[in-house]
């Protein structure tokens, strides 16, 4: 396991930026150790919901956790909106960094993550494989 600290800049798509950073680093599996920052108009899919709900305006990223693969990720976040109301859920594409996002990834160099559709859940779920020895 190696750590990869990141600072995402304003306008970056949180999920896409993490996937791109992992791919650029030559890794294909990581977990988020910590994540804080601020977002704008953040789509979160709440528990049991079919569609994402956009948390409109500025929000603080209080926590971020999940798995990241070079081509897909599964992230959950806790956000506080401008009134202090706290929201939590599945991070969708389109969560834009407002001022900054500071993320620490733990890269798992011997592993690769991918996502395949699981008919039991109706979602693309994590597939874990050990990388072949070089």
Automatic annotation (TrEMBL):
Protein name: DUF296 domain-containing protein
PANTHER family for the chain: DNA-BINDING PROTEIN (PTHR34988:SF1), PROTEIN, PUTATIVE-RELATED (PTHR34988)
PROSITE patterns according to UniProt: PPC
Record lineage: Bacteria, Pseudomonadati, Pseudomonadota, Betaproteobacteria, Burkholderiales
InterPro entries: PPC_dom
Short name of any one Pfam family annotated for the protein: PCC
Signal peptide: none
Domain PPC as annotated: residue spans: 1-129
